């Protein structure tokens, strides 16, 4: 049947006794409405006929009846509800994702298709996303749909006007955020202010005052405690008092026994005060250094460009890829001159951006931000391409896991991909990856079907019901796991303290040792000069 046959409602009046024999070899599309009027003893009966596929048996369903006493009695269900069963139809499909990634990535799409039909995966030589050639044909999965090699794509595809020319999309069933993922550096900068940050300035001044007051009291009690008057100078007593007071504040045990009760009382009070303050201080410092806190080198593409050290990669032969490149007549990827883009007002004003180039309009999903530095009009994408991207588009990652692995392997590599698909894989890699907070683009994804597919309405109906009932959200949680923002906890794994965490403490120890050596050398020189005189 031609596609126009499914656009109307057909009523056939005929004296037919055997419908299956009459319609043998005739394809009645799944999405068509063909009613056959059959005369009965009591009136008229209407039968609805269709086939799930041309080679499958004819489906004959009761539609309604009419008689003189009761009039017309029609169906209780609407058309979309009467076409919710494909009768075991195996829809040919393929995905760009590997078998290991099927559960988390295309498993979302696969589970949705599985609720409508029985997917049958076939092997194709080219399982890339697909790009448009100069003659209008497509490569990859889009090309397979265009040539009717497969019925549906079990992968996430972005809605685009170019793809809509050769294939049909279902209703939107997922919005995905494209973010920039970078590797979190294992090197941690030393912030010396962290040693003073646990206490506010007033507390530090109060602590210094307490140490000074304790040192003065110890200096006053020093001559009357264990030494006769005049045996030591006031300066020496005050200096020793400072060391005693500081030692008490940091809970150091004194080696000498003080015969004076007043001196013991001062040391005890200083020790108790220092015990409380030291516990509070050490707890704050340790928690600050051992927590997995980090500081991003930048938060958006503008910061990445200003940083100047990062190479940018994207999944090749995708809609996002075409922000920077296009496929020329010679079959080669070339960069789009982004300066030729013009911002187009109107359309989905709050959710979509449109760019016009060479007489064609390309939609880019995401919030419309005309003043943003991320737009092609500002030239930021062009600058990033010129200075941060490999000009050979074929050198970019061909899969999600390849791109994430490249981020781990390289110290300064940024990968633009979807957060929802990347999240389940972040904890399975041997490095720490982090997403920049800025959303590069927000795009809508749908199921890609063959052009004029008779199953589009059925799939749309199922997706809409899954959305309303919350089943689609549960499938998304089960297959992607994006609702649980917790890393996978491995059994019997203890996170140890790294050297970089306490590196600054060792620097203080080494610096103190060097200073003590310098002071010792100065004292030796002073005594030698004193004896020589």
TrEMBL record:
Sorted UniProt keywords: Cell membrane, Glycoprotein, Membrane, Receptor, Transmembrane, Transmembrane helix
Record bears the keyword Secreted: no
Membrane spanning stretches: 203-222, 265-283, 502-522
Stretches assigned to the Solute-binding protein family 3/N-terminal domain: 130-478
Subcellular location: Cell membrane
Listed InterPro entries: Insect_Ionotropic_Sensory_Rcpt, Solute-binding_3/MltF_N
SUPFAM superfamilies given in the database record: Periplasmic binding protein-like II
GO CC terms: plasma membrane
Pfam families in alphabetical order: SBP_bac_3 (PF00497)
Record's bilayer topology term: Multi-pass membrane protein
Principal place of residence: membrane
Domain of life: Eukaryota
Protein name as it appears in the record: Solute-binding protein family 3/N-terminal domain-containing protein
């Amino acid at each position: 049947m031609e596609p126009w046959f499914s656009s109307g409602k057909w009523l056939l009046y005929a004296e037919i006794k055997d419908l299956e024999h009459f319609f043998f070899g005739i394809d009645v599309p799944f999405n068509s409405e063909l009613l056959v009027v059959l005369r009965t003893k009591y009136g008229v009966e209407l039968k609805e006929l269709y086939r799930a596929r041309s080679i499958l048996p004819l489906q004959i369903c009761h539609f309604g009846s009419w008689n003189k006493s009761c009039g017309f009695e029609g169906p209780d269900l609407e058309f979309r509800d009467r076409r919710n069963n494909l009768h075991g139809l195996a829809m040919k499909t393929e995905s760009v994702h590997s078998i290991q990634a099927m559960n988390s990535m295309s498993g979302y799409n696969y589970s949705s298709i599985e609720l409508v039909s029985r997917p049958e995966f076939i092997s194709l030589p080219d399982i890339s996303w697909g790009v448009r050639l100069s003659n209008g044909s497509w490569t990859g999965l889009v090309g397979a749909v265009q040539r009717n090699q497969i019925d549906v794509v079990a992968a996430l595809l972005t809605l685009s006007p170019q793809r809509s020319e050769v294939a049909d999309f279902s209703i939107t069933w997922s919005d995905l955020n494209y973010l920039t993922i970078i590797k979190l550096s294992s090197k941690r900068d030393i912030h010396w202010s962290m040693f003073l940050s646990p206490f506010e300035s007033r507390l530090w001044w109060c602590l210094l005052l307490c140490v000074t007051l304790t040192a003065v009291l110890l200096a006053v009690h020093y001559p009357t405690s264990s030494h006769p008057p005049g045996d030591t100078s006031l300066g020496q007593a005050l200096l020793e008092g400072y060391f005693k007071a500081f030692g008490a504040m940091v809970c150091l045990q004194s080696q000498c026994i003080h015969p004076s009760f007043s001196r013991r009382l001062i040391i005890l009070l200083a020790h108790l005060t220092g015990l409380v303050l030291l516990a509070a201080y050490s707890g704050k410092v340790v928690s600050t250094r051992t927590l997995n806190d980090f500081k991003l080198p930048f938060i958006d593409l503008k910061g990445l460009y200003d940083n100047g050290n990062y190479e940018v990669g994207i999944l090749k032969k995708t809609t996002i890829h075409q922000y920077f490149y296009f496929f020329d007549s010679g079959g080669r990827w070339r960069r789009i001159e982004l300066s030729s883009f013009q911002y187009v007002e109107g359309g989905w004003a709050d959710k979509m951006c449109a760019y016009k180039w060479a007489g064609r309009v390309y939609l880019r999903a995401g919030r419309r931000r005309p003043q943003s530095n991320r737009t092609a009009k500002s030239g930021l994408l062009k600058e990033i391409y010129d200075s941060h991207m490999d000009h050979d588009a074929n050198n970019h990652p061909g899969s999600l896991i390849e791109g994430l692995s490249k981020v781990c392997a390289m110290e300064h590599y940024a990968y633009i991909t979807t957060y929802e698909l990347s999240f389940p894989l972040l904890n399975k890699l041997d490095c720490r990856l982090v997403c920049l907070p800025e959303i590069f683009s927000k795009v809508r994804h749908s199921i890609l079907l063959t052009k004029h597919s008779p199953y589009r309405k059925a799939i749309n109906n199922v997706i809409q019901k899954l959305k309303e009932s919350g089943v689609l959200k549960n499938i998304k949680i089960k297959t992607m796991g994006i609702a649980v923002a917790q890393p996978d906890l491995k059994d019997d794994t203890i996170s140890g303290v790294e050297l970089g965490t306490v590196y600054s403490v060792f620097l203080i120890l080494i610096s103190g040792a060097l200073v003590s050596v310098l002071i010792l050398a100065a004292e030796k020189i002073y005594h030698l000069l004193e004896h020589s005189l």
